C-alpha cells in the first residue's frame, strides 16, 4: 500500500506506508481484498514489478544469505537454484535460457571467492556459463530466479516455500524485495 508522495522516505502526516503486501488467494478473491483495502484505508495498491537490476539485487543478497556458508542444513527436498534469462528480441529462434545450480555448487562458489571480492553468485554463475557456453550474459535479462526457499520474477510473482524458515530470514527476504520493488 502506497501512501507516500513521490515514493520518498518522508510520509505525509497521518499516513502510513506499507511497502509490500503479499496475497495468496485465487485471483478473484485477491482482487476483492485489494479493493476492500483501498476503500477502507483510502490507499493505492500496485502490483509489484521489478526491473532487472532490482531483481539481480534481491537474488544476489538472498542467495548470499541462504548459501554463503561451508556446511548448510540438509535439505529435505533439495532444489537447485534456477535462473531464467530472456534473450533480446533480435534473436528470433531463442527466447530464454535456464541455468540450474545445485545448492552444493552454490555454496562452493560463494565460499571459494577471493577475500574482499564483491561479485555475487549471479556474477560467478554468469562468468562460468559465458566461458563454457559462449553466451554473452551481459546481453541477457534475468527474468526469474528461485531456490528451495523462494521463487521471484520481474513481473511481481513471489512464492515463498516453508523451507525459508530454516535457511533464510523471511523478514530479510521481504525487506530486500521492498527496498527494490517499484
TrEMBL record:
Cellular component GO terms, alphabetical: chromosome, centromeric region; nucleus
Keywords carried by this UniProt record: Centromere, Chromosome, Nucleus
Places the protein is found: Chromosome, Centromere; Nucleus
Keyword Nucleus: yes
InterPro entries cross-referenced by the UniProt entry: CENP-L
Main location: nucleus
Pfam families (UniProt xref): CENP-L
Family the UniProt entry places it in: Belongs to the CENP-L/IML3 family.
Protein name: Uncharacterized protein
The organism of origin for this protein: Mortierella alpina (Oleaginous fungus)
